[in-house]
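[audit] Reproducing an earlier prediction to check determinism. Same input, same settings, fresh worker. If the tokens differ from the archived copy the diff job will pick it up downstream; this log only records the rerun itself.
[audit] input (124 residues):
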Amino acid sequence: MNSSEIRSYRDLRVWQKGMDIAEQCYLLTRNYSKQEIYGMSSQIQRAAVSIPANIAEGYGRNSKGEYVQFLRVSQGSLKELETHLILSVRVNLATSEAANPILEDCESVGRMLRSLIRSIQNSM
């Protein structure tokens, strides 16, 4: 079996990068004030976790159409996360230096998601 063969959603680079983003977001938000635990911190964590979770859920679905739909939900969560991160910088919850590397990873994952969606649609 080829080592680059996809046997699970965990083999997908887009899922792996999504997990990295979620981890980075948890590390970032642990420095937020306690009053933000149920506010911005929670919103960032939920959006970040939704990215790889929807990739995994879509992978496990019965049809390519359902898979694409979950990948689109993942894209939406990605844009939601970007918005929360930008606002966090604007209201001084996070620094640009802390948020920008995550935002750059978001751009990369966005490109990967678009490419995966196109690939699946072309195979339908």
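[audit] rerun output stored. Observation attached for the diff report: The mean pLDDT is 94.
[audit] end
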